[in-house]
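Handover notes (outgoing to incoming on-call)

Open items:
1. Mor transcription activator family protein: sequence verified, structure written out, both below. Nothing else pending on this one.
2. Nothing else urgent.
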Amino acid sequence: MAIKRTTEYLDDLANQVEQQLLTRAKLAPHMAKQIAVEVTDHMAHHWGGLNLYFGKGLLRRLSHRDQSIYDSFTGSNFDELVRKTGLTERQIYRIVEQGRKFERTRRQVDMFAAAEETAPHTSRK
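Mor transcription activator family protein structure tokens:
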């Protein structure tokens, strides 16, 4: 079951890369396919054996506009931001919440990485 799922994920990755190369980079189909397969093979080799989790990409989804709104937020200026941006108060609130989530994630310490760095390294003889 796991091997089949892994193969499906790799096939899907190749298809997604190929579609992006076709639509965004406007590459010829044969070139897009070749690059997509090479990228997928590289990622399988590079990350092979790891148990990966892909988040929803909150950090990457914060647009320039949203980041600007979040940076301008003082804690009590919802009305000002509504007037300035033309967005609704609900939209501003949602943008501020996304910004806060991003900041929390960015500042949060990875306890497991810290434990691995400080763990004593022993070798077997």
